[in-house]
Amino acid sequence: MNHRTGTEVGVHFGLPHSPCLLARPVRTAGFSVTRLEWRLKGDASRLVSLPPDDAYFLMLYLNDAHHCDVAADGSESDIRRFRQGSACLVDLTHGACIRLFSDLDSLAFHLPRELFREVAEFSDAPKATGLRCRRGEDDAVMHNLGAALLPLFEEQGSSHAPVLQHIAIAICAHLLHAYGDLSGEPGSSTACLSVWQEKAAKDFMIDHFAIRFPMSAAASAVGVSGRKFIEGFKRVTGQTPQQWLMRYRIARAKQYLAECSLALEAIATRCGFTDQTDFTKTFRRVTGITPSAWQARWIPDAEDRAITATSANEGRSVSEP
């Protein structure tokens, strides 16, 4: 495993000494990930330009960030929020340019197209012709893979080369599975949402996941009719908005279950389910097991801690006047 500083990605962000991990996971194509930590320090913004390249650029946000896109003619899009744990995937064929309006704490990946071809041949990943660009995509898989990379930046030498190679292959395979370009399929370009409309829709649903709302409200946030929204969302994601929201609610419920500090009824309320019965039924339909069984499977002592917490609450209730 190569561990260097001063790589091109860091230079483009004005951070020439940023640590970078380099590898050749399959054959000759390279993989790089750079740890970017930049602070505004009183500056209003910073312009970042990436030159044209036969590659993709992936940004995984470790903290919330705000930036806008800058077009070739210098015009700037609206400033948008990119949530912690989300990812942006950009095709560098024509380069890319953004203006940062906040501190930046992220992992930046440089992924040549040839690397995806090698990974597709090496594994059972889809033989996609390319990847669909993403903007602020909530991606739990990338978040976990990024977390696995962070400790490697603290290591020196080549002892972790196999780990980096495996993670690099896993990242490329995931991107091919999740964002493989389906534009060659018949009718795939019909009634599709733009990448920004898709982001706006998902942002609206994430912001309101804890309450019940009509999908017409999400469609209004995107600026299209309800029917066009549902059809367009399904074409670009493979799921209806209702299915995507349900799976997001289940994912958030798993986070609450892992904390072992809330009753199922409280989790149901926080995640936008009608009641505990609705939560349990939906969770079982999606995962195949009940919330309690999932918690016990992944957290062995969850039941004991739940009993302890219940006893403590009962004790407090007795002692209160």
Keywords:
four-stranded antiparallel beta sheet, alpha+beta, Jelly Rolls, 321 residues, 12 helices, Arc Repressor Mutant, subunit A, disordered N terminus, globular
Structure summarized in a few sentences:
With 321 residues, the protein is an alpha+beta fold. It has helices at 8-12, 113-122, 140-149, 161-179, 195-207, 215-222, 226-237, 241-259, 264-270, 276-287, 291-298, 302-319, and strands spanning 2-5, 19-23, 31-38, 46-50, 55-61, 65-69, 80-82, 86-91, 96-100, 104-112, 134-138.
| Count of folded domains | 3
Indicate the radius of gyration in whole angstroms. Answer: 22 Å
Query: How many DSSP H or I helices?
Result: 12
For CATH, the homologous superfamily of the largest domain is named as Jelly Rolls
CATH class of the largest domain: Mainly Beta
State the major sheet. Answer: 7 strands, antiparallel
What does the model show?
This protein is of the alpha+beta class and 321 residues long. It folds into 3 domains: 2-179, Sandwich (Jelly Rolls), CATH 2.60.120.10; 185-204 and 212-238, no CATH class; 241-316, Orthogonal Bundle (Arc Repressor Mutant, subunit A), CATH 1.10.10.60. 44% of the residues lie in helices and 19% in strands. The chain is built from 12 helices and 11 strands. The strands form 2 sheets. Strands 1-2-3-10-5-8-11 form a 7-stranded antiparallel beta sheet. A 4-stranded antiparallel beta sheet has the order 4-9-6-7, with no helix packed on it. Helix 2 (113-122) packs across helix 4 and helix 6 (215-222) packs across helix 7 (226-237). The longest helix is centred in the middle third of the chain and has 19 residues, at 161-179. The protein is globular, with a radius of gyration of 22 Å. The termini are far apart. Residues 1-6, 184-190 and 306-321 have low confidence and may be disordered.
